[in-house]
Amino acid sequence: MTLSSALASAVSSLTAQGVALSSISENIANSSTTAYKVKDTSFQSLVSSSMESSVAAGGVSTSLSRAMLVQGVISTSTVDTNLAITGSGYFGVTSSPTGGVADLAYSRNGSFTTDSSGYLVNSEGYYLQGYATDADGVVTATGASSLQTINVSNLTSPASASTSLTVAANLPADAAVGDSFTTTSSVIDSLGATHIFDQTWTKTDANTWSLAVSNPYSAGSGEETGTAATNTVSITFDSNGLPSVINPDPSSVTFSFNDGASDATVALNLGAVGSSTGLTQYDSGATDPTIAVTKITSDGMAAGTLSGVTIGSDGAVSATFSNGLTKTIYKIPVATFANASGLSQISGTTFKASASSGQAQINLSGIGAAGDVVSSALEGSTTDTATEFNKMIVAQQAYSAASQVVSSVKDMFDTLISVVR
Q1: Which of 162, 127, 175, 419 is nearest to 290 (CA)?
Q2: Which pairing describes strands 292-298 and 105-107: parallel, antiparallel, or unpaired?
Q3: Burial classification of residue 288, based on how many CB atoms lie within 10 Å of its CB (0-12 exposed, 13-18 middle, 19 or more buried)
Q4: Whole-model pTM above 0.90?
Q5: 5/64 Cα distance (integer angstroms)
Q6: Exposed end of the chain (fewer CB within 10 Å): N or C?
Q7: How many Å apart are CA 291 and CA 200, to the nearest integer?
Q8: Is the CB of residue 279 less than 8 Å from the CB of residue 251?
Q9: Tens of pLDDT along 64-84?
Q10: What would the 3-class secondary structure string for 196-258 be?
């Protein structure tokens, strides 16, 4: 072993411990970074050469790795669009809204919020990718090429015209023949406008009633807003107070509106013959008999604007509208890898697939090897500061020892040079 090789060995130790300290510093700095994965430094011994019984001083080299398979603590968040993954997998992200497959990267940093353009962007500026769904909230195409940048701007809920009116009520058996009672409901046209109309129930004979429907009118002004075309509906009850005949059955009314909306044919669901689920006729028990309404509802929906976005535990991105409608517009998939440790870091907590990691397998949340998406939650850093401080002390001691070797070699070289002089 020569003084030169001893010096080279000590210098390699200084370099290696410097790398280790750099990793420790990075880990401590990112102890609060969402989904940060600890960087580890590994040391390998090097032997430079050997001749017979003489061995030159070797050295040390380092390699860096990340604990990609270690999951951070999942904590709740007050932001609906913050996400975490329990189990294996990564969110698909791109660096721009139009990045496409070539720009596809992967991250567990789920600190997504909606930007001014309606995109879901995390704290590193990456855009969340998802599968678009059809009107029923079902994903129609999968795979990396089917991923889209999730955008929740300019979403509206179109108007839906009423098609049915459901009535559940008791017509008083103790009413006199000729007595009439009025109930009120509403209907929505194809333009989303709401119209009021009355239903008049008249007792025409013992156990027999008729139903007539008024023209639609405005709730504010009371002015007629169209016409209603229907035959009078006749309902006959049996001795048990249940409908025995509904004529016609099924019954309906067709509305024509003055605002340019399409005509609407509304089915009248008055219940089934022999059933108490709709109309019944029982004694009211009151001095002044009256109709007892359990339910009068019509379908249809006015146009709505976006009022909020939520993400479910299955990764479903749902939009809620001012008209009360909630519908799924995207589903967030989870990407897994045969060797996640082989992913190539491109920035912070964002990675690219590599030959070592293998290609991404993209599945919906909880399917196959994919972990479960957790909404209103964030994954914490895997840094353990106590462990890092311990490693820092070890690196400091090793660095100090190596520097002492450098100092000793210097002194020995000085002695050698002084002998020559």
Answers
A1: 175
A2: unpaired
A3: exposed
A4: no
A5: 25
A6: C
A7: 11
A8: no
A9: 888 888 999 999 999 999 999
A10: EEEEEEEEEECCEEEEEECCCECCCCCCECEEEECCCEEEEECCCCCEEEEECCCEEEEEEEC
